[in-house]
Amino acid sequence: MKKLILVRHGQSEWNLKNLFTGWTDVDLTEQGIQEAYEAGKTMLSEGIKPEICFTSYLKRAIKTLNVILDAMNMDYLPVEKSWRLNEKSYGDLQGKNKAEATEEFGAEQVLLWRRSFDVQAPALNPNDERSPYNDPRYTKVDRKELPLTESLQDCINRLMPFYTGKILKAFDTCNTVLVVAHGNSLRGIVKTLKGMSNEEIIKFNIPTGIPYLFELNDDLSLKSDRFLADKETLQRLMDEVANQGNKK
Fold first, then answer.
1. Any catalytic annotation for residue 182?
2. Which of 35, 87, 150, 182 is catalytic?
3. Which residues partner with 79 through β-bridges?
4. Contact 189, 206 (CB under 8 A)
5. Is 87 tagged catalytic?
């Protein structure tokens, strides 16, 4: 049996401030570091032993993975980073408070930008300092592939080549794979594995720092899935994600 573990990064500084983050490279809070540590300890207690790890180009995911591996005493594991695992780009919303954006543009419009499947937020100007065109970590990526904004559908589409070509391919030689990334990029993997509809995935919330275990058959079809947390805690954390647009 194969195991795929997905972990959304621990709480970031902009999660705490309730800001649209997207591709902005913000750090973890102390709580986020603790969440990552607890994620590692939880996996240890479950007897999960990753053999290879994947993460994004953003420090909140990279640092979460590093803390997890340190907690498991498995810092030696191979890690592959890819921009394709980055969070969904929120374009010109990046850096704006979600509740204040709701007051400015209306709850219905902000909900569409945050949680619809195929609606993009306003795009960044290519010359904006927030643009990935001006970030040295993406200099080797074709500009045609770098987003100035994205819908969830766009995010999933740019993730899929990496998911099929790298993450699933890792199971050729490994039985347990760990992916530490972001709420929306991970939702793309969840949607694919669980065969969820567009409507189902936009309502599905992934809390920070809680390992999500998928057990796969030999043909990599889904056998079972569960978050490694008690139901009450999991529901509370999922509700917090869903209600981010309502708090300042």
1. no
2. 87
3. 53
4. no
5. yes
